[in-house]
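User:
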Amino acid sequence: MIEVQHLRRCFGPVVAVDDISFTAQKGDVLGFLGPNGAGKSTAMKMLACFLAPDGGTASVCGHDIITDPVGVRRCLGYLAENAPAYNEMTVAGFLDFVCDARQMKGSVRKQAIERILSMCSIESVYHQTIETLSKGYRRRVGLAQALIHDPQVLILDEPTDGLDPNQKHEVRQLINRMAQEKCIIISTHILEEVEQVCNRTIIIARGQILTDSTPSKLTEEHGCSLNEVFRKITTTKKSA
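Assistant: Predicted structure:
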């Protein structure tokens, strides 16, 4: 469902993503890990067609991010790191706007909104303006817009950021329920979250993939927790 080939992106002299390649299929919940500034968000923005690559390419459900970005966006749900939204809109207005952008009309729209309100537990704030929402509710509204069209592929950048422990648990359960039917990439700094929801892990630093394995294999091979594995791999490679 996702195929990345030699993807590269620079910002002036800084190489943010440096020739990365990987694939992900239906049923994969891929934890995309790395220190701050590793290139995770830049890579995800390129896959979601928010940034153009300087080199290489990628495809999502057979649609090339360079030659067919509209096709990519149709089959993709993307939650950006800061979950941007229009503060003056109500949640209802914002979700209607998203449905308009995705050309969802009539009964399809009505059913999608009803489904997503329950799925993301945002019924109680449906008529509030986004500027009045807590960070946790803003995050859930961001997740709702990513899921409203029931996409085949999800790219979630820090999906539980700002949520309380109960809300984190709910989102992780939601991801687990969707896992068999979708291809999901999750960027997070919460490594216990990776162990709970991901069946595969890529660790990236300085724009390069350092390892591509499963959480259980990594902890078994290194004989320590995933937190320790992460520190060992990223600091050892850095000093090499």
